[in-house]
Write a structure and sequence with these properties.
- By secondary structure, this protein is of the alpha/beta class.
- Helices cover 29% and strands 17% of the residues.
- The protein is built from four helices and five strands.
- Strands 1-5-4-2-3 form a five-stranded parallel β-sheet.
- Strand 4, helix 3 and strand 5 form a beta-alpha-beta unit.
Length: 109
């Protein structure tokens, strides 16, 4: 499975957050696209519209399990996708910004 470390992500990398709504509202990476795993197949078109044409999709969840599932699905669809190792837990622990649903400082559930 293609993976990337949080430390290797650049600020302008395209990030897809597949956690559920309550997790997203509590805290997420600013600028990430949110499509919960439970809605992912039905909302796949939102990803294809938002993702950069020739760019990579960095998929993130809380710890890496759900994002691994989505990453494998995307790779099967021919999308250049990678799983963010350690997910939002590592994101927050490494000092990266986490905002809540109102744009205020957030936390990872």
């Amino acid at each position: 499975m293609p993976t990337v470390e949080v430390a290797d992500l650049k600020d302008d990398d395209f990030l897809l957050d597949v956690r559920e709504d309550d997790e997203w509202q509590a805290g997420h990476a600013a600028g990430a696209l949110h499509i919960p795993l439970s809605d992912f197949v039905a909302r796949y078109g939102e990803l294809t519209e938002a993702a950069p044409q020739d760019g990579r999709v960095h998929v993130i969840c809380r710890s890496g399990g759900r994002s691994a599932q989505v990453t494998m699905y995307l790779v099967q669809q021919g999308v250049d996708a990678v799983n963010v190792d350690g997910g939002m837990q590592v994101w927050a622990a490494s000092g990266r910004s986490v905002v809540d649903g109102k744009g205020e400082p957030g936390h990872v559930l």
